[in-house]
Every structure is written in C-alpha cells, then in structure tokens.
Amino acid sequence: MLTDEELVQAMARGDQAAFEAFVHRYHAPLQHYLERTLHDPRKAEDLVQEVFVRLLKQLQQQKIPDHIRPWMYRVALNLCRDYWKSLAYRNEQQLTAEPPEAQDIQPSVVEIYERQEARKEIIGALRSLPEVQKEIVILRFFHDLKLQEITEVLQIPLSTTKTHLYSGLRKLKALLGPKAGSLTDTGGGRKENRGKPTKEGTPYV
C-alpha cells in the first residue's frame, strides 16, 4: 500500500487514482473529527470538502506539505476556528441559543464509538476538559496521531503537548474511574499497553 507521502506526490503529478485513494483514506477520519468538534454533521461534511480543496490548491502551487497527516488535521481545526468567528455561526447561535458544547451528540457520532455505553460517558467527560486538553486526547486516542503530529496540528511545543495529555488523562481517570481504560480501545493504544510508557514517554491509562 502506498504511503500518504507517495499518494500526495502522485496527486501533485495529476494522478486521479491517487487522489481518489487519498480521499478514501482520509474522508471518514476527518468527518468523524469534525463532527466531534462541531456537533454538526452537515457542516462537518462541508469542511471536509474544503480541506481537500485546500490540499489540491497547495499541490497546484507545487507546495507539498512535509507531514501530510498533521497538515490535514491542522487545516480542519483552523477551518473550525474560522467558522466559529464567522457571522454565519453567530447567526446560527442566536437562532439556537445553544453553544456547541451544550448540544446533543448526533447519532452518527455515537455510531463512531460503536454505541458502547462506556464510550458515551467518555464523550461526555471530554467536554469537561479545557479545550486544548480535549483536542489532544481526541487526536491521540480517537485518531491515533502521535504526539509529534499533534504538536504540528496545534502548533505548540512537544513538552506542552505531553503535559496537557497527561493532565487531561488524569482528569478523565478521576471522572470515569476504570472506564477511562476504554480510551485505549479507540485507536490510541492497545489494552496490553496500559500502564506502559508510549514511545513519546507518556503512560497509557
């Protein structure tokens, strides 16, 4: 199977099959990430399309991102931030009178976590974390990004990423108790790794 970098290089040469393969690889993860961030599946789909449009524009200008996966998530996060600052978002909030953190989780988001009760509780507990800790936990455990990739997405020092991850996991463990171990089943680590340090130096819960 071609690596992300090989696909992107082929896309830059105009390879349509490479583009379709890349979209197939990243569409669902980005959709899930944006749904979890926005709590709005339709808006999430719009922004997923915009991420791919921006990638194509980069490639047309012969500006190939060095680390494509964190680049994709960083663009997605920046699109969310731009949307939250927009007049359209403010008008929507006036109509709903409900901030994004207070909205119900959409069924499609629940399906991502296979409708397991423990994972629903984790989703609720995540909302109690500071924004940066929540982002780091989601990217690490639900999207399997490495700490260095998360550092590139959020554009903060690696040491800060590690500190926020450790603090966020401690808070989740205090809130959830043994159920916090379910985080290791979402892609960020396997059960047999619990209690062992990761390559980045942060222990699993």
Automatic annotation (TrEMBL):
A GO MF term: DNA binding
Database matches in SUPFAM superfamilies: Sigma2 domain of RNA polymerase sigma factors, Sigma3 and sigma4 domains of RNA polymerase sigma factors
State the UniProt keywords alphabetically: Sigma factor, Transcription, Transcription regulation
* Segments forming domain RNA polymerase sigma factor 70 region 4 type: 120-172
Instruction: Report if keyword Transcription regulation is assigned.
Output: yes
The UniProt family comment states:
Belongs to the sigma-70 factor family. ECF subfamily.
What is the recorded name of this protein?
RNA polymerase sigma factor
Biological classification of the source: Bacteria, Bacillati, Bacillota, Bacilli, Bacillales
